[in-house]
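$ ./design --mode recover --in tokens.txt
reading tokens...
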């Protein structure tokens, strides 16, 4: 009984409508924040990955 519920829940989570919902939310928040992650990409990389490489 619990296994059947989990299988149906898994089917919903990985269904096409849910994946589309997640993508639409990502686009929405990207536009609402005025493309913050795109505009500040260099700063983000400099302070994360480059900080791990340089001593």
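writing sequence...
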């Amino acid at each position: 009984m619990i296994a059947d519920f989990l299988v149906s829940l898994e089917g919903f989570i990985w269904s096409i409508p849910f994946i589309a919902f997640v993508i639409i939310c990502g686009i929405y928040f990207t536009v609402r924040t005025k493309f913050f992650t795109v505009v500040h990409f260099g700063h983000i990389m400099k302070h994360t990955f480059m900080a791990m490489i340089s001593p």
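exit 0
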